[in-house]
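Record 1 of the preview.
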Amino acid sequence: MSKKMLWGATLPGCVVLALVWAMLALSGNSLANPPDGDGNHNHGGGGGGGGDTIPVTVTFRDFLGDDVDPVPDRIQSDDGETYDSASIGRTGKFGLGIGGKQKPNEPPVRMLWLDFSDCVSGPCTSPLPPVGLFAASPGTVNLRTHGIDLTEMLVDEFLDVDAGMNLNIDLTKTGGGYWTLRWALDFENCPAGVSSAVTVTRTAADIWEIEAFPNDLACLGEFVGGKWEFSGLYHMPFKMTLQVIPD
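->
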């Protein structure tokens, strides 16, 4: 079954889907006020650190579940297409920025698919309606890694201890608030030490894989009144492959 058909249906168990409308952009999608995953103000989706960056493509696994493993990926692409505007910054952080409103004569808007249906502990509030499709335009998503330098990893080396990641969702322009989903990056009201690290593997000189497994926990929070308000722990499995774009 294609994902387009999956999105258009009401799924068993009230699966909550999020389609965040966005045009891929590594600049011009920063937020004016809310902090990013490091607690600093968000300056777009690049890899961070300034200076030279390494452009990469991003391909999500988009696993839909099967008889052997019924748990689908809860972070997926918009129908399997590769994102071709992301980077690894000078300090080795990976960043993908999806954001803004499509302008005339620009390529079609890209999307990101999110499923917050597997909440482990409350309050289990998310930036989504109870069921069905969710779209926000203009809105922004910034996804970036923390705690590791991808460029310093050896081929076939994998890390799952210090590999943090955050996915920030800005829906303030549509009244949906500003949210952060974090792996191994706690905030003031997230239970300390509970969220899991992501696993990062460098499979070739120009390829990295970043993965969260079905039992890994991510902490969701909403930025309210100048601080992050805990919104629940979630299973959010996904896998994405980064590949360097040749000069």
